[in-house]
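FAQ: What does a multi-protein file look like?

Like this. Sequence, then tokens, then the next protein.
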Amino acid sequence: MNIGYCLTGSFCTFSKSIDALEELVTRGHNVTPIMSENAYSIDTRFGDAVDIQNKLIQITGNSIIHTIEQAEPIGPQKMFDVLAIVPCTGNTLAKLATGITDGAVTMATKSHLRNNRPVVIGISTNDALGAAAKNIGTLLNYKNYYFVPYGMDNYKVKPKSMVCDFAQAADTIELAYNGKEIMKKIY
């Protein structure tokens, strides 16, 4: 498969997301990294942006799509069989649920969906059981959206936070390609 693999600003989950991306490459898929502008450019305590960029390029052998201009041809050129957003922040969820296309990841998604192809969401947001809940619910009801199994990550410290099970991302993506939803794992 040709997979577009998007990372948005949940920097604390990048190492797990990159492991999931690496699993896809190991399984023989051609993976192209796509990053939101913030994910592409911000240095954090979890790593410097250029180091993350270099790692993604090294693993995939492909350049990173990180601008609206680079993402727009994804649909017209039918570049990907599946588009995955792992991690997908609350901000990105809100934009997808309301049709806002103001960055590389949202443009990639809009462009990809024009071909009725699957989009896989790997939630990572501190307000999944708060403000983001309505957007998760909206996307669960949209055609062509599939979710990596997710659950609460630290209910005592972050009672509204949820994160996907990155270990199930590759399986979710492969099943979505065939129009199937992965069975939800209860944490």
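And here is the next protein:
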Amino acid sequence: MQEYMKNSNWVWIPSWNAKNKENPCIVCFRREVNLDAEAKKAKIRISADTRYKLYINGVLVETGPGRGDRQIWFYDTVSLLPYLKQGINVLAVRVLRYPQEPEAGNHGMFRTAVPGLYITGRIEDISGGIYDISTDESWKCRLDQSVSFYREEERFAPLVIHERAKGNAELCGWQGESYDDRDWESARPYIRKMVPEAVSPGNLNPRTIP
């Protein structure tokens, strides 16, 4: 059995509770980075359990990860350079977490007992400044309660991917620099032992399908 190391960079929302575990849920993560000069290098590795959408300054940049299983989990390598600017930049991620029980949502995606977002990487600007953007307590997070999922048909629903979404003024503009996230929670890194079924973060591998 492997352990989460303090700096494993797998994080999750601290207020996650037993009710959240029973239903598909979306958790939003964001981090602001103020670049003193134009970016010269910017690359990250990113993964999540179960699915993620990565936005930079409001632009959808990547979705993933590739489908894993009990023995292997995948990460994506993403260049952020085309989306960055001097000044304030916002990294935003929506993570869709499916319940561990397949009947509660999407038989087609494996998930571990451990929900989470994983990012490692940094930005280097032309003046030599370096900005670590790996997921840790500096990332903010919030549960998006404006989206819920329901069964396609009560007697046969192997996916449970239909969505009901409504407007949420509290999340309006959350992917942009003018958004106030002071009432969001600070993400919590995993520091406890992994349960036997979980592979992340102990067996991360590069995505094999483009």
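Q: Is there any per-entry metadata?
A: Some entries carry free-text notes. For the entry above: Residues 24 and 98 are 5 Å apart (CA to CA).
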